């Protein structure tokens, strides 16, 4: 069985189930968006899929093997995670930061030709060559988000997990990040991304998992799952879904229900 | 500047400072007296040489520990002192003086190491295997303050004025009258601690991206914590055993090193060890060379240097944050 899956995943915080018997199947080559209101369990689910959190019940598996049974480094090579907080704690330059993404591939001190190739490819994919020698802490939010994304790509993971990568970015930079995610999926990687804006999901996602109160409301292809009725049920918001001039779909919030 | 080039420069400076350290003091011993037949040679072989070697070992241990702690806690203000390990080691050492056990050369280091190890154990038990940095740092602060209070208690109930004076002298930190025996005890412990810290280098780099990113790339937080606690504990325990509390080296040196080699934690380790050795050598030479009634204590000299430095660091960080 290929893919990144959650099977009956349950996580409790102080007796309350943050995730309640969640089943999810993400496919390689596709962008899967995790959607749902605040507190629905999206980030917790992503942390379980990344192997950072042990569920109280159920399992997360990668190609049939339990995530937590994988060797740490191997898991790091196969699953790349872009966490929600864009931490960079020291004044290091962009090239050095991107190279940190090679951590799971490097055993000793040396730097292999494969490392250099992967770093250059990641820098090209995120269009940050001009920033190479800049100190990361001096970059704007938009620049920094692309650099951090390049770090994940440099690890050449088969799976790319991103937790709200668009938060606090302007529309142009949001589109840049979404394009990089889409390109990674087109190149064969499985992409799992936590999103807040439903329009971003309509723009980038192939599949969608709708969560509410730790349970899966619906999961499947984006056009089948993201309907006005489902959105109303999940978010408590009345919406209208329309089609733009270029044929893409968009959603407009009309108001709260009840 | 590259790490290798900077390290070479620092090494050359250490060699020069070591030569000066052998010459300088109440009795100046110029190069032409460096012969086994010269009566002044005894001063070099039995006093200055072990003192110089010890300054290098302890300076390196303090600088390296500081760089490792700052990398691990991702905080440029972190210092082994903050962490409680120095205080724990000092408490052990003071207890051995208090009970008058310091008759054998091995009792005091054993107590200091036990103090450092005990502090480490408490930290590990409090912070558990979660590797949580916040719990760990808080545990360190609490352990540090408890160890400080117990040390004060030991002083206040000391049986004789002589014991009080011995304890206070100890706490001030110095390299005066150290022998090859102290070198023999400190060297292997610091070397082992250094190897443990070196093993954390790449994990510390990964931690630059935060705990979640580092773990997702394969960093084992529990292993990292044990290596840091063990490595820093050995380095600080051995240092305190040999020379008492000498603060601020671990705070100042990594900060200066970072300006030259950049912020990558692994790049700061070796230069911080070398820089710590150089700083302590120079400070010890100054303590001997500056004409005061009695020799200036090294621990006091470092605090006089380090205190203002720390305040300046805080002030400049406040400016950045504002």
Fold and architecture overview:
The complex is a heterodimer of chains A (258) and B (322). Chain A has 9 helices and 12 strands. Helix content of chain A is 32%, strand content 29%. With 258 residues, chain A is α/β, with parallel strands linked by helices. In chain A, strand 9 (207-212) and strand 10 form a beta hairpin. In chain A, the strands form 3 sheets. In chain A, strands 6-7-8-3-9-10 form a 6-stranded mixed beta sheet, sandwiched between helices. The longest helix of chain A has 16 residues, at 171-186. The mean pLDDT of chain A is 93. Chain B is an all-alpha fold and 322 residues long. Chain B has 13 helices and no strands. In chain B, helix 1 (3-23) packs antiparallel against helix 2. The radius of gyration of chain B is 20 Å and the shape is globular. The model of chain B has no long low-confidence stretch (mean pLDDT 85). The interface between A and B is medium-sized, with 33 and 21 residues.
Q: Which properties best describe this structure?
A:
heterodimer, A: 258 residues, alpha/beta, six-stranded mixed β-sheet, 12 strands, globular, B: 322 residues, mainly alpha, 0% strand
Q: Sketch the topology of chain B as an H/E string, one letter per element.
A: HHHHHHHHHHHHH
Structural class from helices and strands of chain A? alpha/beta
Helical proportion of chain B? over 70%
* Strands side by side in the biggest sheet of chain A: 6-7-8-3-9-10
The H/E string of chain A reads: EEEHEEHEHHHEHEHEEHHEE
DSSP summary, beta strand count of chain A = 12
Average of the residue pLDDT scores of chain A: 93
Portion in helices of chain A: 25-40%
Classify the secondary structure makeup of chain B into a structural class. Answer: mainly alpha
Strand content of chain B: under 5%
Q: Low-confidence segments of chain A, ≥5 residues, pLDDT <50?
A: none
Query: Main sheet of chain B, how many strands, which sense, barrel?
Result: none
Multimeric status of the protein: heterodimer
* Most residues in contact: chain pair: A-B, 33 and 21 residues
Please tell me what the overall shape of chain B is.
globular
Separate helix tally of chain B: 13
